[in-house]
Design goal:
With 181 residues, the chain is α+β, with helices and mostly antiparallel strands. The protein is built from four helices and ten strands. The strands form two sheets. It has a seven-stranded antiparallel β-sheet, with helices on both faces. The protein has a three-stranded antiparallel β-sheet with strand order 1-2-10. It is globular. The relative contact order is 0.16.
Length: 181
Amino acid sequence: MMKSRIARFFTTILSTSLVLALAAQGVSAQTMEQTWGKISFQTALPFSPPLEIGLDAVALIHPPESGMGEEQMEITLARVSQVVQESMNNNDEEVIAYIKTTFFGLTDPASTSVVRIFQGQQITGQSQSIDFPNDAELEYFLVPLADGSKIFVAFKWALNFSREQVEEIISAVSLSFRETE
């Protein structure tokens, strides 16, 4: 009887310690600030600093020490100036198609619409599967900015990456996404 009480006592202590350790990791994960130009947001896991991938475009990768093409998740940001928008007749679908082709090699239409909150606004984005260079999923949005430009925000993740973590990261980014002075 005494042995079973001692066993329950230590089991409770170990369980509580584990829960507290995991909670502490979760709290620290919520505070990772990312900034690119006048855009700032938080990520729920560590990402690399912005890596230049083109004119007015960057990628942030997780895990941060992985190389491009080896990441579990990538956040891509591409600024679309008013001049670029005008050259595409201010057609958001044309802008999205151009960026998808340029940075992801995609010409197929999206398979699903997705709604997220960016800067307090509901933004309808799209999602689709990618099969080159690796099988992955992609979710992307065109977010308007105060100066009339827009930011293409894309989230790409490997199929073996936890969907729960993907959702946590996308939610953290979209809900904390803001323009800075």
